[in-house]
């Protein structure tokens, strides 16, 4: 890529058959709307397979952006966003940024068009978005994403009986991901879970449904 390096690691048996994966740098992008506070940098790429299938397990993409970012970008707020062609929108992925190494990493369960974007965190927990919800691992869902929150928001999940299931914190872009496991590392059972987002004096309650 002219803007840096991109590597994709696909776990064994993620596809189930022999295919060819192609990755091409994107020169232009759709002007489709993105989530509020999400602005494209113009850096991105397409990933496709030689068959019309999608991975059964998450792939990991690592992007080395070097010195190619526009001057207005705050690297700590970078996210990788996937273009959803059927809906005509960009959806941000939970992204780990290493500003010292100038890299960002994200998990993918769908190959498509991707663009590096800058996301501004919300200033209130009342705007929280939870997706996918219900969380259905059998349909290929790998994690529940909590977005549109302030940076460093505490996100706690509890069973209906009040047992703590997970305790998370959002990144600089106001996002966090739950892999569906409890604090012991076991899969959380099917059911309804109560979520609590807390930032300073702000609090927001929501529900997350797990269907295994």
List keywords for this structure.
0% helix, mainly beta, four-stranded antiparallel β-sheet, five-stranded antiparallel β-sheet, Chondroitinase Ac, Chain A, domain 3, 2 domains, 212 residues, globular, Immunoglobulin-like
Q: Could you explain the architecture of this structure?
A:
- Helix content is 0%, strand content 45%.
- The protein is mainly β and 212 residues long.
- The protein has two domains: 5-119, Chondroitinase Ac, Chain A, domain 3, CATH 2.60.220.30; 125-210, Immunoglobulin-like (Sandwich).
- It has a five-stranded antiparallel β-sheet with strand order 2-3-9-5-6, with no helix packed on it.
- A hairpin with a 4-residue loop joins β5 (78-84) and β6 (89-93).
- The protein is globular.
- The mean pLDDT is 92.
SSE diagram, text form:
Layout: E1 5-9, E2 21-25, E3 38-49, E4 59-64, E5 78-84, E6 89-93, E7 95-98, E8 103-108, E9 113-119, E10 129-131, E11 144-147, E12 154-158, E13 164-169, E14 176-178, E15 191-199, E16 202-210
Number of domains: 2
The portion of residues forming beta strands comes to over 45%
Structural class: mainly beta
Rg (CA only): 17 Å
The residue fraction in helices comes out at under 10%
CATH fold-level label of the largest domain: Chondroitinase Ac, Chain A, domain 3
Oligomeric nature of the chains: single chain
Largest sheet: 5 strands, antiparallel
User: So, CATH architecture of the largest domain?
Assistant: Sandwich
Number-wise, the strands total: 16
Sequence of strands across the biggest β-sheet = 2-3-9-5-6
H-E string: EEEEEEEEEEEEEEEE
Secondary structure tally, helices: 0
Low-confidence stretches: none
Overall, the morphology is: globular
Q: Could you give the distance between the termini?
A: 39 Å
CATH class of the largest domain: Mainly Beta
Mean pLDDT: 92
């Amino acid at each position: 890529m002219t803007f840096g390096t991109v590597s994709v690691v696909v776990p064994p048996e993620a596809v189930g058959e022999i295919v060819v994966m192609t990755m091409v740098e994107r020169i232009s992008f759709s002007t489709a709307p993105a989530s509020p506070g999400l602005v494209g940098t113009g850096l991105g790429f397409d990933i496709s397979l030689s068959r019309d299938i999608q991975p059964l397990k998450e792939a990991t993409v690592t992007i080395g952006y070097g010195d190619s970012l526009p001057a207005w970008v705050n690297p700590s707020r970078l996210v990788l966003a996937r273009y959803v062609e059927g809906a005509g929108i960009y959806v941000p992925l939970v992204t780990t940024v290493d500003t010292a190494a100038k890299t960002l990493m994200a998990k993918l369960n769908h190959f498509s068009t991707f663009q590096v974007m800058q996301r501004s965190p919300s200033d209130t927990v009342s705007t929280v978005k939870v997706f996918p919800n219900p969380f259905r691992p059998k349909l290929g869902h790998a994690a529940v994403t909590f977005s549109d929150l302030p940076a460093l928001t505490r996100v706690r999940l509890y069973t209906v009986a009040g047992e703590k299931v997970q305790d998370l914190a959002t990144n600089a872009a106001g996002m966090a991901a739950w892999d569906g496991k409890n604090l012991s590392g076991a899969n959380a059972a099917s059911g309804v879970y109560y979520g609590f987002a807390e930032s300073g004096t702000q609090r927001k309650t929501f529900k997350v449904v797990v269907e295994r």
